[in-house]
Design goal:
Largest sheet: 6 strands, mixed, barrel
Number of strands: 10
Radius of gyration: 29 Å
Number of helices: 11
Strand order of the largest sheet: 2-3-8-4-6-5
Shape: elongated
Structural class: alpha+beta
Number of domains: 2
Distance between the termini: 33 Å
Order of helices and strands: HHEHEEEHEEEEHEHEHHHHH
Helix content: 40-55%
Length: 354
């Protein structure tokens, strides 16, 4: 402990530089994690908020709300099945304008006002908007005019923050959703939301009605851009986690080479290999963990500064996990240099090389 702290003070410039690099890596990982979670919430939070555990699509549509079409008879048949609560669900993206001239994009979710998907306050001819639309200037008492068809829908309530495909969600009745959808074909819903119990035989329902039922979370891939965004952001995180141990390992490898005479002297004076390993790992832990904590705080500050200007979500649990992951990756990189710590020959300091 004494030797480790003395070396940290003696070479504080080099250790500070290394700590700054680790802190920036940790901050970058935290910021990317925040954007990953924020973009995910901005894409599928409306689906995640649905009080259902399964979604049934038409068999040919996969999990695509835009291509799926489930007729009312299928929805009614599923609702009558034992162990199942079912209600139709319509999903479409449109544009509208408030009576005060505020243009907005709207992800219209058609639900039964008496069903378990309906938010509080939804009426047959009204719309309950999410917090994102309220932030855009839509207020209770406004009239939302749907573009293309000129449908006027009064705003009767505000629900929590929910979005679909980066578009704020709004909840309307199924009849209103049919008008927004403006389809000339037979009446169809995008899907059927299910609450299943122990008695529910989902596979039998799919065979009977020709549907494809998936877990609610599996339907997230239907949201526009969700899969591509997740792959892109997670790839960046993987590379950052690979860079962290390489950078830390390179620093401590150089530092160990520079200290080879001192390490050999300590070995000649009788210092045990275990002690040298311990003080080396202590130095690495102090630098890496401390710098990762500073980087985490910096990422949290960036998130607070951004506010709601961009999709960003970095809750304390995710932030702590990020700091821990960067710390582990950095310590793994420093562990690569441990062999050099114990390899210096004590005879080096006793003149055996002369």
């Amino acid at each position: 402990m004494f030797l480790a702290l003395r070396e940290l003070r003696a070479a504080r410039g080099r250790f500070a530089l290394m700590g700054a690099v680790v802190a920036l890596i940790a901050a970058l990982v935290g910021v990317v994690s925040g954007f990953t979670a924020g973009l995910g919430d901005d894409t599928v939070s409306a689906l995640r908020a649905l009080p259902a555990d399964r979604i049934a699509f038409s068999a040919h549509a996969g999990t695509d709300f835009a291509r799926s079409g489930v007729d009312p008879a299928t929805a009614a048949g599923m609702a009558a099945a034992p162990g199942v609560r079912a209600t139709p669900l319509g999903v479409t993206i449109t544009r509208g304008t408030t009576r005060r001239g505020v243009p907005v994009d709207v992800a219209a979710f058609g639900v039964d006002p008496a069903g378990f998907l309906a938010p509080r306050g939804l009426t047959g001819d009204g719309v309950v908007v999410s917090r994102g639309l309220a932030d855009d200037g839509v207020r209770v008492g406004d009239t939302l005019v749907i573009d293309r068809i000129g449908l006027r829908v009064p705003v009767v309530g505000v629900a929590g923050r929910a979005a679909y495909g980066h578009v704020p969600a709004a909840y309307v009745s199924l009849d209103t959703w049919e008008k927004i959808r403006a389809s000339s074909g037979p009446r169809e819903y995008s899907a059927v939301a299910l609450k299943t119990g122990d008695r529910a035989d989902v596979a039998a329902l799919d065979r009977r009605f020709g549907t494809r039922t998936v877990a609610r979370d599996a339907a997230f891939a239907a949201a526009p851009g969700y899969s591509g965004e997740r792959i892109t952001m997670n790839s960046i995180l993987v590379f950052l986690y690979l860079i962290a141990p390489l950078v830390v390992g390179a620093f401590f490898a150089v530092w160990t080479v520079q200290r080879t005479p001192e390490l050999a002297l300590l070995r000649a004076l009788g210092a045990a290999r275990r002690r040298l390993l311990g003080h080396t790992m202590l130095q690495a832990a102090l630098v890496v963990v401390g710098a990762s904590a500073v980087g985490g705080a910096l990422a949290a500050a960036v998130g607070a500064a951004l506010g709601s200007a961009v999709p960003f979500s970095l809750p304390p649990g995710t932030l702590l996990g990020t700091v821990a992951a960067v710390s582990v990756a950095g310590l793994a990189g420093s562990a690569l240099t441990l062999r050099r710590v114990t390899s210096p020959d004590p005879l080096t300091m006793l003149g055996a090389n002369r």
